[in-house]
TrEMBL record:
EC number: 1.1.1.3
GO MF annotations in UniProt: homoserine dehydrogenase activity
Name of this protein: Homoserine dehydrogenase
PANTHER family with a match to the protein in the record: HOMOSERINE DEHYDROGENASE (PTHR43331:SF1)
Keywords, in A-Z order: Amino-acid biosynthesis, Methionine biosynthesis, NADP, Oxidoreductase, Threonine biosynthesis
Organism: Cytobacillus stercorigallinarum
Catalysed reaction, written as an equation: L-homoserine + NADP(+) = L-aspartate 4-semialdehyde + NADPH + H(+)
Annotated ranges, domain Aspartate/homoserine dehydrogenase NAD-binding: 9-126
Pfam families for this protein: Homoserine_dh, NAD_binding_3
Signal peptide annotation: none
Keyword NADP: yes
InterPro entries attached to this UniProt entry: Asp/hSer_DH_NAD-bd, HDH, HDH_cat, HDH_CS, NAD(P)-bd_dom_sf
Pathway(s) served: Amino-acid biosynthesis; L-methionine biosynthesis via de novo pathway; L-homoserine from L-aspartate: step 3/3; Amino-acid biosynthesis; L-threonine biosynthesis; L-threonine from L-aspartate: step 3/5
Domain Homoserine dehydrogenase catalytic as annotated: residue spans: 135-313
Amino acid sequence: MTINIALLGYGTVGKGVYRTIQQHQGRLQKLLGEEIKVVAILVRDIKKHTAPDQSVILTNQYEEIQQLENVDVVIDAIVGIEPAVTYLQNAIEKGRHVITANKEMFAEKSHILRELAKKYHVSVGYEATVAGGIPIIQTLKKLLNANKVTKVEGILNGTSNFILTKMREEQLSFDNALALAQELGYAEADPTNDIEGFDAYYKASILSELIYGEKPKSEQVERRGIASIAKSDITFFNELGLRYKHVATIEYAQSHVKCAVRPVLVESNHPLYQVEDVQNAIHIEADIVGSISLQGPGAGMYPTASAIIEDLIHLKEEDRDYTFNEESALDQQSVKTSWIAYGRSALLQLPEGAEIMKMIANDTWVVEIEGDLSIKDASFIEILGDTTRLKEVKKIH
Ligand SMILES: NC(=O)C1=CN([C@@H]2O[C@H](COP(=O)(O)OP(=O)(O)OC[C@H]3O[C@@H](n4cnc5c(N)ncnc54)[C@H](OP(=O)(O)O)[C@@H]3O)[C@@H](O)[C@H]2O)C=CC1
Ligand SMILES: N[C@@H](CC=O)C(=O)O
């Protein structure tokens, strides 16, 4: 018996999937009990490509793939909401399992595909949509069997973490670091998605739907990118013991999902401080188990292929609702958060109740507030980690 696959897209991810299936055929056969064969590949511009094997149909017409009678699984490694969602709907209606790496599409249209898949008794795999090679979806599904997840915090975009690391470590300009991320296959076709936080927001949204059964309302999401962070700021804060990281947070509070994607400053004893280059990391807080952290490559050809192959292995698993949204006393507690107030004007805008803890450089203060800061301004940057370790300096003025 053979599991026949149609691959939509033959770029970084599509090629990674094809090569992985070829190179690990023996292992896959042992796991699945069947041979795995890519029978067709869809691309947009056929002139750019050659079929990797004579037996593989290479086409730019989806209808050709839809008409094939022997396809069991369709893997989506193309870009954007349409035509991907229509292709996958058609595939499901034909009784095919689908696997997607396409976060933009899945963040928007997951409900349509999952409902349709239930009706046609097929599965929808989406491990590759979040955090590249980190098996976060499977981990959460296992965790959610017993736990209520109270908060998820993490670096979910490999490209922006790579850029921030290269700007700090190698003094690369923003543009050169981005160009390198594109060359390495980490960035999205439109890298605005990476650097402006859309990609991390799509991923947070997918996690939110799995954990809380609902997506954050886009108009309530604070989404800020990294494009305005200057190399001089990175160096300045690095010398004070703080690293810029682009962090996504999701939690359930006051009966709705709260989501933010923004640059923060991380102190050296915080786990995210060491998460560098294209690495992603996810910290999960859950009520029974406590805290769990996962770290691994967040983008690239083989890490993403690994996530897609995992979905192949879990193909016949049922999709069910994992959500526990009852609020606990813990959800109601307001915690203190630490911020850098950067520049004299920031100090003048401090909200009532804010406490100035110390001055760590000229015109740079650590302040503490209850809960989140309502002022969304670049002169306030949240700090993660132990701020008592930051050195106090004498006031200069
Ligand atoms: N790169 C990464 O690290 C990761 C990417 N992803 C997601 O995986 C997907 C693919 O990413 P990636 O491989 O990097 O992208 P690439 O740009 O490298 O490749 C995209 C492929 O899809 C094909 N394609 C795009 N649009 C269409 C269309 N409308 N019809 C047919 N074919 C189309 C392109 O064809 P052609 O070559 O002819 O232009 C190309 O082969 C994206 O949704 C991305 O968000 C997810 C996790 C990680
Ligand atoms: N562009 C994305 C690719 C993986 O999801 C990223 O950089 O994280």
